[in-house]
Amino acid sequence: MRRIIIVGYMGAGKTTVGKALAKDTGLQFYDLDWYIEGRMRKTVPQIFAERGEDGFRRIEHNLLHEAAEFEDVILSCGGGTPCFFDNMDYMNSLADTVYLKAEPDVLCAHLKMGKTRRPLIEGKSEEELHEFIKNQLSQREAYYMKARHVFDVSLLDNYEKIQTTVASLRKMLDL
Ligand SMILES: Nc1ncnc2c1ncn2[C@@H]1O[C@H](COP(=O)(O)OP(=O)(O)OP(=O)(O)O)[C@@H](O)[C@H]1O
Ligand SMILES: O=C(O)C1=C[C@@H](O)[C@@H](O)[C@H](O)C1
Ligand SMILES: [Mg+2]
User: Fold this and answer.
1) How high does pLDDT run on average in the chain?
2) What's the pTM value of the predicted model, to 2 decimals?
3) What's in the GO CC field (predicted)?
4) What is the mean pLDDT of the segment spanning 89-110?
5) Could you give all domains of the chain from N- to C-terminal order, each with its CATH number?
6) Interface predicted TM-score of the whole assembly (ipTM), two decimals
7) Which pLDDT value is given to residue 115?
8) Quick check: 75 and 30 in contact, CB under 8 A?
9) Residue 18, ligand 1, Cβ within 6 A
10) Is 85 left (phi over 0), alpha (psi -120 to 50) or beta?
11) Would the N or C end of the chain have less CB density within 10 A of its end CB?
12) Could you tell me if the CB of 152 is within 6 A of ligand 1?
């Protein structure tokens, strides 16, 4: 039985890489943000608006305990998941955890792509976003670094290279 959990900052590519890795390995893919949205029948921004960040973190914690029990899966977390409650220790206790690490410049570039709404960074100018990421990443990194494996995606900034990331992760995780 294999269970892989991907952690890292917003925009690192957890969802994108997790999905590609699942496709390549035949494991089933779950994304914790999407799982929360399905179970709550609300979007992440709606949950933040209605219950605040504290309310979201409680829901995230409870539903992590459901999603992380599935077997033969790749589970991509939300950017904040490892940093609340005992979530990171819990994930390490039952899965192979991987930190997808990326520099603030790369995270900024990724966050400008796609349509995902992220309440914590909405409405920020480019300069504000860079400053916010730098500060928050420095607070969060200690949690992310508890993952059993670390993979730096900063040098792999294009779609073709998502396949390179998948191949490297398969080797790293013996998948
Ligand atoms: N290696 C990459 N090269 C180019 N684009 C990428 C790469 N990784 C991710 N992206 C793009 O960056 C954006 C953010 O990626 P993704 O949504 O997978 O991040 P995430 O880590 O899941 O973020 P969140 O914590 O908010 O869920 C997407 O539009 C995705 O297509
Ligand atoms: O980094 C974070 O705290 C977040 C990341 C997203 O995946 C979502 O879970 C939500 O927008 C919060
Ligand atoms: Mg994601």
Assistant:
1) 94
2) 0.96
3) cytosol
4) 95
5) 3-154 (3.40.50.300)
6) 0.96
7) 81
8) yes
9) no
10) left
11) N
12) no
**Residue 94: which of 111, 112, 73, 124 has the closest Cα?**
73
Q: Which residues are annotated as a binding site?
A: 11-16, 33, 57, 79, 118, 140
Q: Is the CB of 14 under 6 A from ligand 1?
A: yes
Known binding positions for Mg(2+):
15
With a 6 A CB cut-off, is 104 part of the ligand 2 pocket? Answer: no
Binding-site residue numbers for substrate are: 33, 57, 79, 140
Average pLDDT over residues 73-89: 98
Give the confidence band of 113 by pLDDT, cuts at 50, 70, 90: confident
For residue 81, give the ligand nearest its CA. 2
How confident is the model at residue 158, as a pLDDT?
63
Asked which of 16-30, 55-69, 143-157 is least confident by mean pLDDT, the reply is 143-157
* CA 74 – CA 71 distance, rounded (Å): 9
Q: Are 109 and 156 in contact (CB under 8 A)?
A: no
Lowest mean pLDDT among 74-83, 106-115, 122-131: 106-115
**Does ligand 2 lie within 6 Å of residue 49's CB atom?**
no
How far is the centre of ligand 2, averaged over its atoms, from the C-alpha of 162 (Å)?
21
> Count of residues for the chain?
175
